[in-house]
Design brief:
Blueprint (H helix, E strand, L loop, with lengths): L18 H21 L9 H13 L8 E2 H11 L5 H12 L11 E2 L17 E2 L1
Antiparallel strand pairs: 1-3, 2-3
Helix pairs in contact: 2-3, 3-4
Amino acid sequence: MSDTQNPGQTPQDTTPVALEEEMRRSYLDYAMSVIVARALPDVRDGLKPVHRRILFAMQEAGYTADKPYRKSARVVGDVMGKYHPHGDASIYDALVRMAQPFSMRLPLIDGQGNFGSVDGDPPAAMRYTEAR
């Protein structure tokens, strides 16, 4: 809401700030919040938000260990459509990492197909791999 008592005047409690300094500080605050909230794994379980979203979507859709494998593209589509609208490549990369026994101490996803190797070979495209 606007101040109707003193139109055209600035409130008395404002302090002038240099634009460059304010932009630098504001951007640094924003960048740090993004890094802490998204890029760094949580200390409680070691998972990033995209990992949690993949596991939650798989649980909700019933892609559990006692069911048949589902195409990875289906899992990625479910996650992107419902929980993580940031592109399929980042979702598939996170899914692949959780299925690789050499990337995590305990693989969280049971993958079938070419999920890459320790030697640095890339995983197959999501249409060729399956997960549960």
